[in-house]
Amino acid sequence: MAELSFYDKVAARADVPPEAAPLLTQAALRTLAERISGGQAAAMAGHLAAELSPLLVKGTEDPETFGYEEFLWRVEKRAGVDRSTAERGVRAVLQTLHRVVGHREFEDAMAQLPAPIRSLAEPVPRKP
Hints:
CATH superfamily: Uncharacterized conserved protein DUF2267
Number of strands: 0
CATH architecture: Orthogonal Bundle
Number of domains: 1
Distance between the termini: 29 Å
Strand content: under 5%
Structural class: mainly alpha
Number of helices: 7
Radius of gyration: 13 Å
Shape: globular
């Protein structure tokens, strides 16, 4: 059986149709790149597949400063989805990214984010 792609994993985690996963992934990675330092974004980009790594490359070292609401708003607008889908999408992308880039690299990036955005990387307990 073929290994699931990043997009397949995001679609499954976010509970969205497979065709929605690329837009959500791209929107979330672009927004994350804006919010963390250029060096950290580049360090994570090196772990991603060729089609995803450019999304984490930025022209400046300095991160933008914005919070949870702005983060989700940017993802909503870029992906053309509602708030709930954006939140599930960001959660799914961050959790998938964690597994792809490794714990240390991921934690270094998360340390640059405010707690509400970092909380999106935490798994949601499954309903019984």
